[in-house]
Design goal:
The structure holds two protein chains of two kinds.
Chain A: E1 2-11, E2 14-24, E3 29-33, H1 40-48, E4 54-62, E5 65-66, H2 72-78, E6 80-83, E7 90-94, H3 95-109, H4 117-130, H5 136-139, E8 141-142, H6 148-162, E9 166-170, H7 178-190, E10 197-202, H8 207-210, E11 215-220, E12 223-228, H9 230-239, H10 242-248
Parallel strand pairs in A: 3-10, 3-11, 6-9, 9-10
Antiparallel strand pairs in A: 1-2, 1-4, 4-5, 7-8, 11-12
Chain B: H1 3-11, H2 20-33, H3 70-73, E1 78-83, E2 86-87, E3 101-105, H4 106-112, H5 118-123, H6 131-139, E4 143-148, E5 158-164, E6 172-173, E7 176-181, E8 186-195, E9 202-211, E10 216-224, E11 230-239, E12 244-251, E13 256-265, E14 271-280, E15 285-294, E16 300-309, E17 314-323, E18 331-340, E19 346-355, E20 361-370, H7 373-381, H8 386-402, H9 408-422
Parallel strand pairs in B: 1-5, 4-7, 5-8, 6-9, 7-9, 8-10, 9-11, 10-12, 11-13, 12-14, 13-15, 14-16, 15-17, 16-18, 17-19, 18-20
Antiparallel strand pairs in B: 1-2, 3-4
Helix pairs in contact in B: 1-2, 2-6, 7-8, 8-9
The chains are: A alpha/beta, B alpha/beta.
């Protein structure tokens, strides 16, 4: 589904990703772990098409298409979703407004007509219920006045409405207490599907207690330096990153 | 001799006409003052000199009601409509008014009851009157005189509309609205200034509202003149004890638009809300000058202005708040937030608080910013195309002003107008009931 080959990315002339390789098959959950500054968030942003990053080499192929050639909205249309580390507040725009515009944007990209308003409302209400969210969330301006936990739950809610085939979770656990973390993880687990892949970027192992990955990758100095099973994450939790960095050096 | 003096001379009423001497006095003020220059503080950012010599005529023409305008005109059974300054009886309807609410045309009052206007017009014939308010007081021929008896209440809004046709000449109009609301009366007034595509009118519009003790008034002023029009407006709000006036200015039109608002809080308990939303697109200059005078203790003012400027559009907001020495225990809040949509756009915002009392609560804030790049990326990452994401953010920026409009058809009309000016369809209005 997603193939990243020798990806090299700079920010303000400074190399951040230095030849990253990754293969994410359909239906799998891969975790990206690594120390601060290793390029984890850069990878998430580059996959979603955030401006400000310069790709200097390598390729990203998503379902046979050159992902890097697409605008952020086209990537969403192709099925990419980024759950933000810091979800953005949009004053004056209700969640439900934004979601309808988003869903119609995606449908248009796929050559489909606009969704019927009644069906849409029924669908979003059902999704709020299945994630245990209040319907009042729909009428609130996007992320405005939301607590940290509410913002992250709202990201998962949006994901459930937009039904991506590739969901990139950028440090979704940051700033969450253990209860909020469990709720967010349950939401993600509900969305696990043989046709849907997840790339879970995280600094800490604890998220992976709830969202159990098929593969764990360690990102350091802009490259994947080790890949393994879930046990690798537990080992990192116990031993930190230094032993790995030294082994590579 | 400049166009303003020429205009004043051309419109000077005969001494024998009702209130003739008073109105000539107002025009003498205009002639003495002349076209304002940026040397005057209140005209610092709005320079009228590039207008050159304006050739102005009175030449009423016919008008086609645009599809976009019709829902607004049909939103209320009470309406008084003028085209190029002249009453349009077929577009007007006042039959459903209760007897306690009297609405007359200005021309009728000037002809049959002129003395009732003397005190109002005298205010604008004074030496310190604002020049275009004085011009209106000297030249006004038609408009609306609205009187509410004590404790009277008009359920649906009253719409007073001044429509300008695509007149080939630059047509001059001086529309005047006078509102006298007696104690505990209630009114919603929609004041519309509209120009057909191609209209190039100059309007010197004056509205004078006296809100009696305990009265509650909502005033919505919509300025959607045509792209070549010049609009010079003046609004005075005088509030009595415990009076509440909410006045909202929506300014989207004209090549050059200026509105001066003076709110006088003259008795304890008076509370005024001044809200505004303007959008100056390429080639437009929109200036609001507001002045709130806390002249009595226990008075309240709330002011929220939001401005947008795109292309080489230019916006100006100046918010004066005066708290007089005896005006203790007042609360004044002012916010001016502005968004520049292009690198060539400019908005100047200037809060001016003069506080001479010591036991008061005053707060103000002013910002000028650009569309949030992170928010744009956030929306795009959800699949929303760039242009639509842009429009959605602009729409969101206007919402806290639009949401304070209490008349639903107007609120919807505004949302559609804002969407139209962004030239991008907005997601349809969705309400989720619990």
């Amino acid at each position: 589904m997603l193939t990243i080959e020798n990806l090299q990315v700079e920010v303000d002339g400074k190399p951040i990703l230095r030849g990253l390789n990754l293969e994410l098959p359909a239906g799998q959950v891969h975790a990206i772990m690594g120390p601060n500054g290793s390029g984890k968030s850069t990878l998430a942003h580059v996959l979603a098409g955030k401006p400000g990053y310069t790709v200097t080499g390598g390729s990203v192929t998503f379902n046979g298409r050159d992902l890097l050639a697409l605008s952020p909205e086209e990537r969403a249309g192709e099925g990419v979703f980024l759950a933000f580390q810091y979800p953005v507040e949009i004053p004056g725009v209700n969640n439900v407004y934004m979601l309808k515009a988003a869903l119609n944007g995606i449908r248009k990209h796929r050559g489909l007509g606009e969704i019927n308003a009644v069906e849409f409302l029924a669908m979003v209400k059902a999704k709020t219920a299945s994630l245990g969210l209040k319907e009042s969330l729909l009428n609130r301006p996007v992320n405005q006045g939301f607590s940290g936990g509410e913002k992250k739950r709202n990201e998962v809610f949006q994901m459930s409405v937009l039904e991506p085939t590739l969901a990139v979770l950028d440090e979704t656990d940051s700033g969450l207490d253990i209860d909020a973390l469990r709720i967010v993880a349950e939401g993600v687990n509900q969305l696990r599907d043989p046709k849907r892949s997840f790339l879970v970027v995280t600094h800490y192992q604890r998220l992976l207690d709830y969202i159990v990955p098929d593969v764990v990758h360690v990102l350091a100095q802009g490259q994947i330096i080790k890949s393994g099973t879930r046990e690798l994450a537990l080992e990192l939790e116990a031993r930190g990153y230094d032993w790995l960095l030294q082994a590579v050096a | 001799m400049n166009w303003l003096t020429t205009l004043a001379q051309a419109h000077a009423p005969g001494l024998e006409s009702p209130l003739g001497a008073l109105r000539q006095q107002a025009l003498a003020v205009v002639a003495a003052r002349g076209v304002p220059t940026p040397r005057e503080e209140s005209w610092k950012y709005t320079d009228l000199r590039p207008l050159g010599e304006l050739a102005l005529v009175d030449a009423p023409a016919a008008i086609q009601i645009a599809n976009t305008l019709a829902p607004l005109l049909e939103s209320t059974p009470h309406r008084l409509v003028f085209v190029d300054g002249v009453l349009a009886p077929t577009l007007s309807a006042l039959d459903a008014l209760p007897p306690s609410v009297q609405v007359r045309t200005l021309s009728e009052v000037l002809a049959h009851d002129p003395e009732s206007l003397r005190a109002t017009l005298a205010r604008y014939a004074a030496q310190d009157a604002q020049v275009f308010a004085a011009l209106n007081a000297g030249c006004a021929r038609d408009g609306a005189v609205i009187e509410l008896a004590a404790a009277s209440r008009l359920e649906a809004p009253l719409l007073v509309a001044f429509l300008n046709s695509q007149n080939p000449a630059r047509c001059f109009t001086a529309p005047l609205i006078v509102v006298k609301a007696d104690a505990h009366s209630q009114l919603t007034l929609i004041e519309l200034h509209y120009g057909e595509v191609g209209a190039q009118n100059l309007s010197a519009a004056l509205t004078d509202i006296s809100a009696g003790a305990g009265s509650q008034l909502a005033h919505y002023r919509l300025q959607i003149e045509a792209a070549e029009a010049l609009h010079l407006g003046h609004l005075r709000l005088a509030l009595g004890e415990q009076a509440q006036v909410d006045s909202h200015s929506f300014a989207f039109g004209a090549k050059l638009a200026r509105l001066d608002i003076n709110a006088e809080l003259a008795a304890p308990g008076a509370a005024v809300t001044l809200n505004g939303l303007f959008h100056a697109q390429a080639g437009q200059h929109i200036d609001h000058q507001t002045k709130i005078d806390h002249a009595a203790p226990h008075t309240t003012s709330n002011e929220l202005y939001r401005g947008l400027a795109g292309g080489d559009g230019r916006g100006v907001f100046r918010g004066q708040v005066l708290v007089r020495p005896n005006a203790q225990k007042i609360a004044a809040k002012q916010a001016s937030h502005n968004l520049l949509l292009s690198p060539n756009a400019e908005i100047d915002t200037k809060p001016e608080l003069e506080i001479y009392a010591d036991d008061v609560s005053c707060a103000h804030g002013a910002t000028v910013g650009q569309l949030d790049e992170n928010a744009l990326f956030y929306l795009r990452s959800r699949g929303i195309p760039l242009a639509e994401a842009h429009a959605l953010l602009v729409f969101g920026f206007t919402q806290d002003v639009v949401e304070q409009v209490n008349f639903a058809p107007l609120r919807e009309w505004l949302a559609n107008t804002l969407a139209g000016s962004a030239d991008v369809p907005l997601p349809e209005k969705l309400e989720v009931s619990e």
